[in-house]
Structure formats: structure tokens, C-alpha cells
Amino acid sequence: MSGIIAIIKKELARFFFDRRMLVTTLIMPGLLIYVVYTLMGTLISDIAGGDARYSAAVKNMPEVLTAYFSGSPFDISDASESDDAYKTRIVEGSLDIFVLFPEDFEDAVASAGEPGYEAPNVEIYYSSSSDDSAAAFAAFSAVLDLYEKAISNVFNVNHGDGYDLGTPQSSAAYILSAIVPMIMLVLLFSGCMAVAPESIAGEKERGTLATMLVTPVKRSHIAIGKIVSLSCIALLSGICSFIGLILSLPNLMKGVFNGIDLSMFGLGHYMMMLGVMLSTVLLLIAAISCVSAMAKSVKEATTYVGPLSVVVVVVGLLSSLLGRGVSQWLCLIPVYNSAITMTGIMSLSVTPLGFILTIVSNVVYAGLLVFLLTRMFKSEKIMFDK
Amino acid sequence: MQEILKVCDLKKQFRLSYRQQKLQRTNDRMLTAVDGLSFTANRGEIFGLLGPNGAGKTTTLRMLATLIAPDSGDAYIDGCSVVKQPDKVRSKIGFLTGELRLEDFFTPNYLFDFFSELYGVPSDVRDGRKNALFSRFGIDKFAEVKLANLSTGMKQKVSLVISVVNDPEFIIFDEPTNGLDVLTAKTVTDFLLELKAQGKTIILSTHIFSLVEKICDRVGIIINGRLVALDTVAEITKEKGLEDVFFDIYARVAGGEA
Ligand SMILES: Nc1ncnc2c1ncn2[C@@H]1O[C@H](COP(=O)(O)OP(=O)(O)O)[C@@H](O)[C@H]1O
Ligand SMILES: [Mg+2]
Questions:
Q1: Cα(B159)–Cα(B153) distance, rounded to whole angstroms?
Q2: Nearest Cβ partner for A207 among B99, B120, B162
Q3: Rounded to 5 degrees, what are φ and ψ at A54?
Q4: In chain B, N or C terminus with fewer CB closer than 10 Å?
Q5: Which phi and psi (to 5°) does residue B2 adopt?
Q6: Tens-digit pLDDT profile for residues A57-94
């Protein structure tokens, strides 16, 4: 027992007194996520946020349409000069669109459906070589389409408000459940990658593991001590990333849904997330440690773990696509279980059975891998082969 | 004279990979590194295993240190079998080779405490030992300096000190002076003689004749994994120098094989 504690203390000391390691694995990932997502959110809201306004010169603006343009991004001016003057301005870029309604537009439209009816033509001049002009054209046409639909009303779909039964909170949960598990899996994995190969293959490569193997400390205690301490570090790194992610999400989403409301998550949800993260990290650390023990150097270990990282990313992606409403027994599949349980927690639909299956199975798998790692520490072929 | 080490018919073969086969220009799948080695060492002596490169010295010492297991045979250190009681053997011995390294990141002080804990040394005993050894080797001034920032010689001294944190009765040194500068090498041999004066037993391997002549009480000459001579250094070097004796034996053994 004292051997386990000594090894845990040593591993933690190795990490916490190394400022570079501390910054790169604990602080940087969370901070980076926060900064990058906040920037992305700002960019998205700039693009989609429609602060842009378009200038439109309109001739013979029908009275009925003014209501449709209230609140639209158009600065509409009455066109009194010659048509060509406006066209020149569009080409020059000082005007976005020039719209010509027929003089008898309203009367003509009123007789729609009568025999011999000829639909009036609205002319919109624009320039496809200008983004603003093209966008203004699209927006103006959309408003006219709306009007056309309204006057030729045959039937309505969802006329009026009150059909969207989703609360802002549950749609937030839906979005979170699609994003968070995938990102968290990748982040947890990279946290584990930052510490495990270095601690196992690195120590083997440098000959410091052999020094420990000469002492009477049990091989199983070395394995347990390593995995417990590395898991603590990776979990801390995961928590930091999670905090960065959660804090940045409102910023990321602000352009899309006018922000996101996290108030539906209580302490229980966060504790469950922590539980899933812990069990996942235990499993990943144990798996990466076993692979690293096979390798002769950190570099080799990183190469061996490569395919595992692909699996983790793919499973993360799959779970956010296929993770809903699946059988709870799938919670026995490592990595996938973490992804769907995190999806469940974030979408407020996690079941106790699924949660417990995930935690317990991950811990059991990790235990088996600790056993395997112990066997590897005992194997002279793996530890001392040239 | 009390026997502390008894080696009985130790055998060790290595399976060669294809690459190793080509490297050693052989078609044999198996390489016999240690071929039925038997000898004993007495308490309080320095026993030397002398042999050329590839003779099987390191392999033998690793089996004694329980890092690798013999294919057959056994060895008993202070009555404990390296095959059946490896944990017990490990707690009784100190083992030092160039391949065992210490983590550069830590200080001598931290490492001494860490390894003491792995050996289960109580902290008051540990502190006394640490003070004595650190001042003996002049490490005390550097006790809180990371190994990475120490000179090579000082690092060697730290390794030496760490290998005896458990105050072992039986100490195994593989090529103790290999790759050391003359000053550090002298520090090491002086320390070995000190340990012997304290009544400890030391088994070392080397290919350096002068080292054996200088500090060993008894010597076993090992060639191709077999013990070809075993006696006190005084007896073996009665008529001519150790180097001449060795080459006589080598010519006989290698000649007989050819
Ligand atoms: N892990 C191993 N795999 C294959 N061959 C080995 C291994 N370890 C040692 N050998 C071979 O066994 C022989 C004895 O090696 P060693 O004990 O290191 O000799 P020495 O220490 O006397 O120089 C050498 O031929 C060496 O190549
Ligand atoms: Mg050797």
C-alpha cells in the first residue's frame, strides 16, 4: 500500500511541479476552447446577425407593401430620378437595388384569378458581382414572395405563434447534447495522451522504470499507482476543458439562438458528467498505458495509440448522430457508452441504468487493463528486450 | 566462512528475432547467454565475474537481481530463491547498472525519500542514512538541485547512493566503473571497499583485469555463458598476471571450440 501511495505522490509531483506540463495540459486546453469558441460565436453572429442594412430605391411603391417592409433591413427611398441614374449607382456600389413596380400594380394584383389576367412584372435591378446587392435582391424577393403567398392564400401552415413546443431550455439541451459529448471525448482523450505515454513509455525508454522494478514494490502496485495518478491528472485536464467549453457555449451560440440558457443543469447533472468523465479517463488511461508499455519509446507509443484516437473520434461523432434512443445495454461498449451517457445527461434524458452500466463497465474494463499492465511489468520480454 | 550466495546450474536462452539473427550472423533461433552457471560467494567478500563482452555477465546479474527469470536452475541469496521469492530477494539486495536511471526532474533528496518509501524504510532510519551518505559523497550541497542540473559525476554518485537506500547486505554491480571518468571510478571502487569493510557482500561484473586484481577477493571467469575458472584472486595470479591467465584460458576454451 505504501508503494502505491509513494508512486502516486511521485507522479503528481512530477506533474504539478512542472510548470510547462501544468500549462500545456491543464490551463491551455480549457482556455483555448473558451477563446476559440467565443471568437467563433462572435464571427457567426457578425455574419448571421444582420446588422447590415441595404439601400433600395423604389419607384411606385404600393401602399400595401409598406407594412411588409417594416422591420426589414431596407432603407427605402422613393425613386424620382431617371432609371439610368439608379442603375449607374448600383454598378458604382452606392446603391444596392433599384425596384420598379408597375404603376397599376395594386389594381392588377386585385384582379388576380380573373379570366385573361396578366401577372404584372416587378423589376429589380441588382448586381450579382456585389455581395450586398445580391443579398438585398434575395431579401427583397423574399418579401415579395411572402406577399404573393399572402394574397393568393390557399391554405396556411402554422399561421400565428405558439406551435414550437420546445422551450429555449430544451432546445439548448438538444444542441449541447449534440456537441458536448463529441468534443469532451476528444478532449479527454488528448488529456490522457498528454500524460500516459510520457509516464509509461517515457520511463521505460529512459530506464527509470527499470530502477523501480529493482525495488521490492509489487508490480501491481506500480500499475495501480500509475493509473490512479495519471487518471487524476487527465480528469483535472478534462474538467478544465469542460469548464472552458460550458462557459464558451453561450458565446458560441449567441448569434444562432440569441444565446443559450444553461439553467436547466443542476448540480446533479454536473456530478453525473464528472462521474462519466472519471470512469472514461480511468479506462482511456489504462488502455493507453498498456499500449505504451508495449512501445520502446514515447514516439513509438504515440504511433501505436494513433488508431485508438481515430476510434474515439469516430465513436464520438457516431454517438451524436445515432446516440438517441438506443438500447441501454449498449452502455457496455467502452467509449461509446461514455458518449451516449454524456449525450443523455446533456439532453436531460439519461436513465439511471444506463448511467450505472457505463460507470461500472468502464471501471471493470479499467481494472482488467490494470491486471494486464501488471502482467506486462512482470514480462522481461516487454520490459527488458533490446 | 559463511555462504551468502549460491548459484545452481543457471541457464538462460534468448529467442532471437530475425533482425538479431542477421546482426549476429547466425541461423540459430535460440542464443544461449548463460549455460549452466554454478558458483557460491561468501559473506563479506567482493566476488568478480570477469569475462569479455557477450559472455553473459549482465544476464547472470539480472537473474540474480530477479529482473529476468532463469530458464532452469536457481540462485539463493541469503537463503531466498530468486525464482520462488523474487520480492524477498529484491528487498535484500542493492542493484546498480548503467541501464538503471533516475528521473532527471527530481532532486537527490526527493529521490532518496522516494526509493526509501518503495523499500519500506522508516523515515527516521532513512534520514540518518541520507545524511551520512550525502555528506560522504558531497551530495549534501546539491540535495535540492534537480538531477538534470547536476554534473555527470555527481549524478553517478546519486545513483550509487540510491542503490543502497535499503542498506542491503548483498550488492550487485554490473560493470561498476564502465564509462566513468577516473575520479568517479575511484570514488566507486573506494565505496565498494568501504561496503566490504562494513561486512557487506558484493558481486560485480567487469571486463577490466586491473579492477579485479585491485578489489576482488575471488573471481569467476566466464566465457560464452560458462564458468571456466573460479578461485581466489591471490591463487589465480600466483604465477602470472590476471591478463595472461585469462588469455591462456581463453585460447584453450575458444581453441577447443573451434
Ligand atoms: N534480451 C535479449 N535478447 C536477445 N539476446 C540477448 C538479450 N540479452 C542478452 N542477449 C545476448 O546474450 C549474450 C550475453 O549478453 P550479456 O549478458 O549482456 O553479456 P555481457 O554482459 O557479459 O557482455 C549476448 O550475446 C547478448 O547479445
Ligand atoms: Mg554487460
A1: 10
A2: B99
A3: -110, 145
A4: C
A5: -105, 130
A6: 998 888 888 888 877 778 888 888 888 889 999 988 88
**Gap from CA of B41 to ligand 2 centroid (Å):** 20
Residue with cell 575471488: B218
Q: Which residues does chain A have within 8 Å of residue B54's beta carbon, measured at their own beta carbons?
A: none
DSSP letter assigned to residue A216: S
- d(C-alpha B67, C-alpha B87), whole Å: 11
Out of A41-50, A123-132, A217-226, the most confident range is A217-226
In angstroms, the CA A90 to CA A123 distance is 14
For an interface test with A, the pick among B68, B95, B117, B170 (most A C-beta atoms closer than 10 Å) comes out as B117
Could you give the domains of chain A?
Answer: 2-44+168-384 (no CATH), 54-151 (3.40.190)
Q: How far is CA B19 from the centre of its chain?
A: 29
Are residues A61 and A144 in contact, defined by beta-carbon separation less than 8 angstroms? no
Q: Which grid coordinates are listed for B6? A: 549460491
Q: Are A143 and A72 in contact (CB under 8 A)?
A: yes
State how far residue B67 is from chain A, nearest Cα, in angstroms: 7
- Matching residue, cell 478544465: A240
Nearest residue to A216 (alpha-carbon basis) of B140, B67, B220, B107: B67
Residues contacting A153, CB < 8 A, separation 6+? none
H or E element, residue A220: helix A219-257
The set of residues, in sequence order, having a beta carbon less than 8 Å from that of A224 and lying 6+ positions away, is A4, A370
**Ligand closest to the CA atom of residue B33:** 1
Place of cell 472514461: A280
DSSP state, residue A126 = -
ipTM of the complex as predicted = 0.92
Among all chains, which residue has been given the C-alpha cell 560522504? Answer: B136
| Other beta carbons less than 10 A from residue B148's beta carbon | 11
| Strand partners of residue B30 | B15
Interface mutation target, options A215, A217, A219, A229, chain B, most CBs of B under 10 Å: A215
Has residue A133 got a pLDDT over 90? Answer: no
Q: Is B51 in the pocket of ligand 1 (CB under 6 A)?
A: yes
* Helices and strands in chain A: count of H runs, count of E runs: 15, 4
A vs B, Cβ pairs < 8 A, gives 66
Q: What pTM did the predictor assign?
A: 0.82
**Could you give the CA distance from residue A323 to residue A319 in angstroms, rounded to a whole number?**
4
Read off the pLDDT of residues B24-69 as tens digits, 9 standing for 90 and up.
788 888 999 999 999 999 999 999 999 999 999 999 999 999 999 9
User: How far is it, in rounded angstroms, from Cα B145 to Cα B151?
Assistant: 11
Calculate Rg over the CA atoms of chain A: 31
CB distance B101 to A211 below 8 Å: yes
